[in-house]
Amino acid sequence: MTGANSFQVSGYGPERAGWTRLFARDSMARRLDWPMLLSAMALSMMGALLVYSATRNRTELNQGDQYYFLIRHVLNTGIGLALMIGTVWLGHRALRTAVPILYGLSVFLILLVLTPLGSTINGAHSWIKLPGGFSLQPSEFVKVTIILGMAMLLAARVDAGDKPYPDHRTVMQALGLATVPMLIVLLMPDLGSVMVMVVIVLGVLLASGASNRWVFGLIGAGTTGAIAVWQLGVLDDYQIARFAAFANPELDPAGVGYNTNQARIAIGSGGLSGAGLFHGSQTTGQFVPEQQTDFVFTVAGEELGFLGGGLIIVLLGVILWRACRIARETTELYGTIVAAGIVAWLAFQSFENVGMTLGIMPVTGLPLPFVSYGGSSMFAVWVAIGLLQSIRVQRPMSA
Questions:
Q1: Rounded to the nearest 5 degrees, what angle is found at the Cα of 340, between the Cα atoms of 399 and 42?
Q2: What value does the mean pLDDT of the chain take?
Q3: How far, in Å, CA of 321 to CA of 99, rounded?
Q4: In a 3-state reduction of DSSP, which class is residue 372?
Q5: Alpha carbons 112 and 90: distance in angstroms, whole number
Q6: Of 73, 171, 254, 344, whose Cβ has the fewest other Cβ atoms within 10 Å?
Q7: With the C-alpha atoms ordered 228, 231, 234, 239, is the resulting torsion angle positive or negative?
């Protein structure tokens, strides 16, 4: 299947041109990775219930409408599904040709955040306010464009048969492409998103077949850069305080350590099966801040218990397992790199989000994929699912 003709599926020749579109559509549906798709949908539906539980009594947030966040979460999921379908329909190969436009647009949007159009939410100046009370977080879409842009550069000569693996010059170009938006996002500052982007870059380089010297060099450079960022005062005070609270949770239990301590209490009180949906005392009492977004996993832990929280982790694991399988089975390096970049993104962000609620990772403000409330995050992860599905659909029938 090619990007130029998203109806054409391998195995359908020109002799069947009269029926190609009808049968190609049917074949495309059959070749979708349904375990991945159903797992993502199940996570989004669980997220809707958890978001509703966390916000139905928060009158200062829901404008007096207990269904305010529920309706918006469902709407965001619906838009995300539409974006996924559109991504599969266009095909990852067609999007490959549009990467320069997508990259330029994403950089332009994150630059807008640094202008008066930008808005600060929870200490991070990472948002653009839109009419109707909506907000856009461009850094979520930058994750997608970094994956696509680096994959395009690293795979170009390999897929063309000119080289067996990316040369040093190509790797430098790919790293330069990723560095520009990462530096802009760091200036916001949105440290959580930068951490995800660094992991994405590492995953992409490993999947591309680039020399391991680049991987080790990047790890060393990242460590040096993190120390420099800390010493030069690039981070805001609240971010430094979060890392200090992570290192010592008892440092300020009523201040910067409050979120983590309350999150652990909520999850610990859930036991095996939880207090029951909508019956969590910590959630109902509004003791855990930002439960509909960053700390949504605490609602699952308290109200659905170990079983409910474990189900979320299992569903995320299914998505990652199927994505790894897609990366392994595709015959083009471009598809392998895109799939691997998405795996690195979703795996690290999920681990960081769940980890910070358990106190084993610092609080960074990263949403839980498919579950947390937030339009930009929901749209980006469903586009990622669309890219994975496109790679699977467009692989040769023998793969």
A1: 85
A2: 84
A3: 27
A4: coil
A5: 28
A6: 254
A7: positive
Q: Do 158 and 164 form a contact (C-beta atoms < 8 A)? A: yes
What are the backbone dihedrals phi and psi of residue 187, each rounded to the nearest 5 degrees, phi first?
-70, -15
Phi, psi of 162 (to 5 degrees): -80, -30
Asked if residue 199 lies in contact with residue 345, where contact means CB atoms within 8 angstroms, the answer is yes
Confidence (pLDDT) at 115: 83
Helices (H), the chain: 20-31, 34-55, 59-62, 68-90, 92-97, 99-113, 138-159, 168-187, 191-208, 212-232, 237-247, 258-269, 281-284, 296-303, 305-329, 333-358, 375-393
pLDDT band per the 50, 70, 90 thresholds, residue 8 = very low
pLDDT reported for residue 13: 39
Select from 77, 76, 72 the least CA-distant residue to 55: 72
pLDDT(293) > 50: yes
Place of tokens 């509909």: 292
| Whether 189 contacts 236, CB under 8 Å | yes
5: phi then psi, degrees, rounded to nearest 5: -135, 90
Contact assessment for residue 165 and residue 158, using Cβ atoms and an 8 Å cutoff: yes
Cα–Cα distance list, 164 to 160, 208, 374 (Å): 10, 10, 41
What is residue 114's predicted lDDT score, i.e. its pLDDT? 86
Rounded to the nearest 5°, which phi and psi values hold at 220?
Answer: -65, -40
pLDDT at residue 223, as a whole number = 78
Residues 57, 63, 68, CA angle at the centre, nearest 5°?
Answer: 70
The Cα–Cα gap between 181 and 198 comes to: 11
* Segment among 9-18, 283-292, 295-304 with least mean pLDDT: 9-18
Q: Residue 185: name the closest of 253, 238, 114 by CA.
A: 114
Report whether 122 contacts 365 (CB < 8 A): yes
At residue 320, does pLDDT exceed 80?
Answer: yes
Please state the pTM of the whole predicted model: 0.87
Per DSSP, what are the bridge partners of residue 136? 128
